[in-house]
Every structure is written in C-alpha cells, then in structure tokens.
Write a structure and sequence with these properties.
This is NAD(P)H-dependent FMN reductase. By secondary structure, the protein is an alpha/beta fold. It has a single domain, classed as 3-Layer(aba) Sandwich (Rossmann fold). About 35% of the residues lie in helices and about 20% in strands. It has six helices and five strands. It has a five-stranded parallel β-sheet with strand order 2-1-3-4-5, sandwiched between helices. α1 crosses α6. The chain is globular, with a radius of gyration of 17 Å. The relative contact order is 0.16.
C-alpha cells in the first residue's frame, strides 16, 4: 500500500486581485517535496459553483448534480486530507469558501483539514481560521492543531515583488504536513475499515 495520500489544496478566495493563489501554490510545492502526498490544487474560481443552490445540487438529495457541482464533488471525494488557504474578510472567511463548504457533506467527512490564513492585520487571518474550526466539525471534519498565518502579508515583498516569508515558514509547513499526514492516514484507515455512521 502506498503511503501517499491525496491532498486537496483549496484556494478559498475568488476576489479580483486575491493573494490566495500564492500561499496555496507554495504549500502545494512543499507538500509535493514532503513525499507523503499527491497534490490537487483546487481553485474555487475555476470551480465556478452556481450561486443559486438548487434542489438537485443539495447534498442530501439523490438527484443528478449540475456539472460544476459534480466535478468539484469528485475532487473533494478523492482527497484524503485538505489544506484550506483563506484570507480574512470582515473578521471571517470569504463567501466563496463558505459557499463551497455548504454544497457538500460526505465529501468532507472523516478527513483532516489544515488551515493557512493571511490578512492585513497582526492576527494574520486567524479569525477566519477560528470560524473554519467552528464550521468543519458540523461536517464531521477534523481540524488539525497546527496552522500557518501570514499577518500583514502586504509588508513582506522584496524589490522583485517576491514574498519574503515563505522560506522561513517551511519548517512550520513541514510540521503542519507531518501532522496532517498522520491524521490523514489514521482516518483513511478508519474509513476503509468501517463506514462512518450516518449522523441522522
């Protein structure tokens, strides 16, 4: 059995001028070098989920989902673990991220998720992380202890426009990924051994 897990790295912002792709691509690269993951970089802008949640697209119906919802469902289902990258907007997560979370239930269940946040304040998006820690348990998703935050990220670019904090954050990223891999393996083994009971 391969020790590699399928890791979904989710770009949580869809705003014009968003910074989220930069830390998402960084952590995806670190995860690929880690050796424990096959990485799928999931951009919610490309996912293009419908703004109107129709009855067919609701997770608790057996109807055929619309193409964008079904396509993202397949990628989330395939993942054994997640890293969610999110800015902090108005003390919380972007609407696009909450929208994507709310479309699905079983795809998130019994899997671990790590969070990388950023923001214009000294907290580095930790209000967004705390809201995700409240939301994900409702989906039966395990949020791991370690996270990474980039406070006042806009202050840390060199003269070439390169972000200067990624290299020094690599040890923290390795610790995060080690923990995520442990939980991902444990929960994958548990899901394979015994189907998770319905919460209803």
């Amino acid at each position: 059995m391969s020790d590699k897990l399928n890791l979904g790295v989710i770009i949580g912002s869809t705003r014009e001028g968003r910074w989220a792709p930069a830390p998402a691509k960084w952590i995806a690269g670190v995860a690929e070098r880690h050796g424990g993951f096959d990485v799928d970089l999931i951009d919610l802008l490309d996912a293009d989920l419908p703004q109107h949640l129709s009855e067919n697209d609701m997770w608790n119906t057996d109807a055929e989902q619309s193409a964008p919802v079904a396509a993202l469902a397949e990628r989330l289902h395939r993942a054994d673990a997640f890293v969610v990258v999110s800015g902090e907007y108005n003390m919380s997560i972007p609407a696009s991220l909450k929208h994507a979370v709310d479309y699905y239930m079983n795809e998130w269940a019994a899997k671990p998720v790590a969070m990388i946040t950023y923001g214009g304040k000294i907290t580095g998006g930790q209000n967004a992380a705390q809201h995700l820690r409240q939301i994900f348990p409702e989906l039966r998703t395990m949020t791991i202890r370690n996270s990474i935050a980039f406070p006042r990220f806009y202050q840390h670019f060199d003269e070439r426009g390169e972000f200067t904090k990624f290299d020094e954050s690599e040890p923290a990223a390795k610790t995060l990924l080690d923990e995520l891999h442990w939980w991902g393996r444990a929960l994958t083994n548990a899901r394979n051994a015994t189907p998770m009971p319905s919460p209803f």
